[in-house]
Amino acid sequence: MVNVRVIFAVLVLMIMSGCAALQQQMGAVSLDSYIQGCIYRGQEQGISSDKASELCHCHVNAAIEKSSRQEFLDAASRLANATKEEKLSGALKHEMVLVKHTFKQCKTSLGL
Q: Is residue 19 predicted with pLDDT exceeding 60?
């Protein structure tokens, strides 16, 4: 019986570590996608590619420092999918502060 329990425990740990690694990779892809979209939107506003990249990386790093990578991605996702009414109602205040405020701070500090 002990051997079966040990084997089962090892199997569970292997599955859990595999899931954690996959989740980390997906988070990195999501973050890269967010940054690429941010750079694209910056260029649409007339900001050079280099400055847009600097702005977006500053913004993402500042937001992650205030919270965590996953919390930032969750907040950005909620804002992207929110209706205008949800944004105006104040229900997404935390998300707005985390995502939009750090963007504005970096934009100001970079003189854009």
A: no
Q: Which long-range contacts (CB under 8 A, 24 or more apart) does 42-48 make?
A: 47/112
Q: Strands (DSSP E) along the chain, which ranges?
A: none
Q: Which of 10, 33, 15, 23 is nearest to 80 (CA)?
A: 33
Entry pTM: 0.63
**pLDDT one-digit tens code per residue, 42-88:** 899 898 999 999 998 998 899 888 888 888 888 888 888 888 888 88
Give the gyration radius of the chain's Cα atoms.
19
Distance (Å, rounded) from C-alpha 87 to C-alpha 85? 5
The token pair that represents 12 in the structure block: 């569970």
Q: Classify residue 101 by burial, with Cβ atoms within 10 Å: 0-12, 13-18, 19+.
A: middle
